[in-house]
Amino acid sequence: MESIRLNKYLSGQGVCSRREADRLIQLGKVTIDGRTAQMGEKVTGQEEICCEGKPVGTAGRGEAIEPVLLVVNKPQGIVCTTSDKDRAPNVVDLVGYQTRIYPVGRLDKDSEGLLLMTNQGELANRIIHAGNLHEKEYLVSVDRPFDRAFIRQLRDGVELKELGVTTRPCQVKAEGEKTFRIILTQGMNRQIRRMCETLGYHVVFLKRVRIMNICLGKLKPGGFRRVTEEEFNQLQKLLEKGRRK
Questions:
Q1: What angle do CA 214, 108, 203 make, to 5 degrees?
Q2: I want to staple 206 with a disulfide (CB 3.0 to 4.6 A). Which of 75, 87, 111, 115 is the partner?
């Protein structure tokens, strides 16, 4: 039987994305036949694999996994990981869905808004992949009034010296003296907050309102819904278009 990398296997079984699988393996929270798994290991799916103490896989059962893709409005104070490090409620427990699902990408603890959750590993990886230039839209407020130069600098790209990168040019529109709307096509950790801090501003409110074609709309904080068939079909078209590029 063909073997595959453990992180890909966990992703395909709807446990988490490959990136999150690597994190869990590094933390020693994945076991294979009773021993702690190592980074880069390969499995066939016939092993006894557990993640955070829970059995993973359908070996010997032949059970199909029902695909799930949810739109969630994550409130402030909720984290996207299930580690104990943050000592804060996590979004998996918040949603309490009947089958195992996990976040597609991250939205930091202090931010709120749209988060996709799924049990489809390959779909999650395709959405997360920054090289596909998928759009994510945010509404942001800072601690003091800004000027046109601030908006222009955000649009043109900001040098983040601590990361050794300059952000991609992006779309930015003022919505008030302290509030703006920004559309990114990359997903560095706390990117908007870092960009604003570099320019001398502090973010006091950050809400994600769109990922690609899927919008938050009027979904209440803590609420969730399944994507519609129309949304899913359009999402697949955008993913395929991004793959070709």
A1: 95
A2: 111
Higher pLDDT, 57 or 211: 211
Question: H or E element: which one contains 214?
Answer: strand 214-215
Active site residues: 108
Beta carbons within 8 Å of 230's beta carbon, 6+ residues apart: none
Report the alpha-carbon distance of residue 92 to residue 135 in Å, rounded. Answer: 24
Place of tokens 């570099």: 198
CB-side exposure of 124: number of CA atoms within 13 Å? 30
CB atoms within 10 A of CB 218: 7
Is 134:242 a contact under the CB 8 Å cutoff? yes
Residue carrying structure tokens 């040098």: 159
Which tokens is 134 given? 């998928």
Q: Do 44 and 38 touch, CB atoms closer than 8 A?
A: no
Report the alpha-carbon distance of residue 19 to residue 33 in Å, rounded: 22
- CB of 70 closer than 8 Å to CB of 228: no
Instruction: Judge if pTM exceeds 0.85.
Output: no
Taking only the tens place, the pLDDT of each residue in 192-207 is 999 999 999 999 999 9
Q: Cα dihedral sign for 29, 31, 34, 38?
A: negative
